[in-house]
Design a protein that fits this description.
Layout: H1 2-25, E1 28-32, E2 43-47, H2 53-90, H3 94-108, H4 115-165, H5 170-182, H6 189-214, H7 216-224, H8 232-255
Length: 256
Amino acid sequence: VGLEHELEGEDGLRAHDRREHARDARVGAEAVDPLPGRDRERRDEALALEVAVGEQVALSYGEEVGLALEAQQAEIRAKYAKRLDEAATNGEDVTKIRGELDNDLAKVGEGLSTRKGADTAQLHAANTSAVFDNQANNILVSRAVTQARVDGAKFLNSTGAIVASNPAYLPQAEKDVDAFVETLSRVPPEKRAAMAADLKQNMNVAAAMGAARLDPEGTKRDIEAGKLYMTPEQRLQVIGQADATIRAKRVEENYV
């Protein structure tokens, strides 16, 4: 029994020594000479390894540069978001504003001596430019749609007058609509399609109203057969014009 306890004790010491050895293996070592007059082997004394101070400074500097760039970019984004909001109402040229933005972004990258700093500045500049371009494009599209409505009204007045006086011009007028809409390059396709449909519909109404004065009976037959592209309300309007022309003719015939 005593031997068992003694062996257990030795095993316990060995386990303890192994743990101590494993712990010491995780630290560095420094050679220590024996004291004068002692004939003792050189031994290594454990010393904790230190992290290089330069690495900590470099990391701190990089973080500091990144935060500074983010602050500058945030200030620039806020400045030009406000400029674009104002441009949406005052009509300022967004291309001119874009040029000023490019100049401000270029200044942010000045003075950066490291490749990482320059790359970070370039990335922030690209993100800021993308946000600006998206907002500026929305303004340009809005302006284009507004101008297209003005030009469309002028087109309708001029071409519609021709169709009203000569209903046979309707097929050519519809081709003219397609050609006009194709010139609206900045207007989104779905808005161009809607504008073309609206203009053609108004051309059909103009042609039908002109035909109702020239040939009211034939116009009513065409309306009832669905030959003209109009809404139900517009059809009733044209039929009303045709009926009025028929009544006027009958009155005139009665007086002859």
